[in-house]
Each structure stands twice: as structure tokens, then as C-alpha cells.
């Protein structure tokens, strides 16, 4: 297990089956989602996508311990108060995670938006070893970064080669659902869909979903979290966990 001020890993290196990528360990950053820090919004599409109530931020340990929620709020407030100091902490922690992974002989993967949707590729410069970089991705070319996003315009950008983005679907708002569908069609980006239950997701796995809007095959997105290893042009099928199980907004489908 790796633990630092900004990111943490569960300690389980996941084996990527059937390819030459080897083992990865993922460290994730958890912030207080949407406007819960009361200092700014780290999920600008949450209102439109209707995902805040069913947000994964309350799944797992954070749903049980208020101290975890408070720590995430404090971390998010640090992000808004001093971006420069926050980025310096993040660089220090990712560098430590890279060393930790090297010692364990696994490859380092990082998900910065565990419970947020920040556009890290824009206006987030940082310094590493005295050199200034335009983004954290440029500062750590040896790390594979990946995230889910509801900000569909990000899929049209030319993203760094070590950053993989998967669009996140919701039917809470038909305009948002249409925009995601259109973006997926135009960019080829993968789309994650949260289904009501594992049984529902499993029943769709391997089949085309929602033709003619999507007309894409559903894969099991819970087998591994390593979204950068997914085939292109698929629906990444997840099933609802934590408060998402009770979601009625349309974020959870089925
Ligand atoms: S589901 Fe994602 S975008 Fe929505 S509130 Fe949670 S972290 Fe933010």
C-alpha cells in the first residue's frame, strides 16, 4: 500500500491479462466532489449529468468514516487556496509513488480524478527537479495516467500519450446523454456506463448496446480498473456500488 498527502494506492498490483503490458499498481487521488469543499467546483458537469447524489465518493471507506470525508474536503480546499503548493505536493507524491513501484517491480499508474473531474491537461503547470512542465503528464512520462470524465469536450483535445480518458454516461439529462453519444461517435472515445446491478451488466457483456445511438459492444469494466488497456470503441460496463445503487436520477441505467 502507498499512502501520501495527495494520492494513495490499495497495494494490489493488477495483472493485465493477455498482453505484454505487465503489472500495474494504481494510485488514486480522492477529493471532495462537485462543490462539497465549499470553495469551488471540481466537477463542472455534475449538475448537468445528475451524478452528485450517486457519486462514488461515498462508496467504500468514505461512506463509513466522516474523518475521510473531512480529509478530502481539506485537501480540496488546499487545491483551491494555493494551486502552486498543491501541484508541488502532487509532484513530490507521484515521484515517491514511482520509486515505490520501482521497488515492487510494477509499473506506476495514477488516477487523479478518483472523485473529481478536473481538467489537468489545461492550466495546471508544475515543476519537477527544477524544470517547469506544462502539465503533470509531461512531468512524469514514465507514469500512465487515466481518468473518467463527464466533460465531453476533453475528448476532442489532443491529450498527452500517457493520459487516457473514458467518457462517463448519464441519462439524468437527455441533452447530456445526447452530447456524450455524439462525442463518442465523433472521437471514438470509450464510454463508461453504470448499470443497476452486476447481473444486468453481465447480461449485456459481449453484446451491442443501445443501437442505433451507440451500437457498441459492452465489456466488463470491473474486471480491471486499467481503462488504458481497454479496446477502443466500446461501452465500459460497470455496476452500481455504494449510494449509486439507490440512484434514480438516470446516472445509473436500468
Ligand atoms: S460522479 Fe464524477 S463528476 Fe459526478 S460528482 Fe462524482 S466525481 Fe464528480
Give the strand tally: 14
Mean pLDDT: 91
Bound molecules: iron/sulfur cluster
Distance between the termini: 35 Å
List low-confidence stretches: none
Order of helical and strand elements: EEEEHHHEEEHEEHEHEEEE
The class by helix and strand makeup works out as alpha/beta
Task: Report Rg.
Answer: 18 Å
- Percent range for helical residues? 25-40%
Q: How many domains make up the coordinates?
A: 1
**Gross morphology:** globular
Number of helices: 6
Largest sheet: 12 strands, mixed
How does this structure look, described?
The protein has helices spanning 46-49, 66-81, 83-104, 136-139, 174-187, 198-204; strands spanning 2-3, 8-9, 14-15, 23-28, 107-111, 126-128, 131-133, 144-149, 163-168, 191-195, 208-209, 216-220, 235-239, 252-253. It is α/β, with parallel strands linked by helices and 254 residues long. The chain has one domain (2-253). 39% of the residues are buried. The mean pLDDT is 91. Iron/sulfur cluster (SF4) binds next to loops. Iron/sulfur cluster binds at residues 33-34, 43, 46, 51-52, 55, 57, 115-117, 150.
Amino acid at each position: 500500500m502507498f499512502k501520501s498527502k495527495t494520492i494513495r494506492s490499495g497495494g494490489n498490483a493488477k495483472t493485465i491479462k493477455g498482453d505484454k503490458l505487465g503489472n500495474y499498481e494504481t494510485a488514486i487521488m480522492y477529493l471532495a466532489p462537485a462543490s462539497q469543499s465549499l470553495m469551488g467546483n471540481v466537477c463542472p458537469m455534475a449538475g448537468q449529468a445528475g451524478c452528485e447524489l450517486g457519486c462514488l465518493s461515498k462508496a467504500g471507506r468514505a461512506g463509513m468514516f466522516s474523518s475521510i470525508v473531512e480529509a478530502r474536503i481539506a485537501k480540496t480546499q488546499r487545491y483551491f487556496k494555493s494551486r502552486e503548493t498543491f501541484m508541488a505536493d502532487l509532484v513530490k507524491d507521484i515521484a515517491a509513488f514511482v520509486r515505490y513501484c520501482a521497488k515492487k517491480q510494477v509499473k506506476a499508474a495514477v488516477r487523479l480524478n478518483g472523485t473529481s473531474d478536473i481538467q489537468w491537461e489545461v492550466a495546471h503547470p508544475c515543476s519537477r527537479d527544477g524544470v517547469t512542465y506544462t502539465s503533470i503528464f509531461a512531468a512524469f512520462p514514465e507514469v500512465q495516467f487515466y481518468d473518467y470524465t463527464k466533460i465531453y469536450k476533453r475528448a476532442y483535445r489532443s491529450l498527452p500519450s500517457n493520459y487516457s480518458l473514458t467518457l462517463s454516461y448519464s441519462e439524468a439529462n437527455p441533452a447530456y446523454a445526447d452530447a456524450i453519444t455524439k462525442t463518442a461517435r465523433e472521437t471514438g472515445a470509450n464510454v463508461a456506463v453504470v448499470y443497476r446491478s452486476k447481473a444486468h451488466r453481465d447480461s449485456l457483456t459481449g453484446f451491442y448496446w443501445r443501437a442505433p445511438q451507440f451500437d457498441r459492444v459492452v465489456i466488463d469494466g470491473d474486471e480491471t480498473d486499467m481503462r488504458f488497456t481497454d479496446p477502443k470503441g466500446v461501452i465500459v460496463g460497470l455496476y452500481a456500488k455504494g449510494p449509486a445503487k439507490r440512484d434514480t436520477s438516470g446516472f445509473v441505467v436500468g
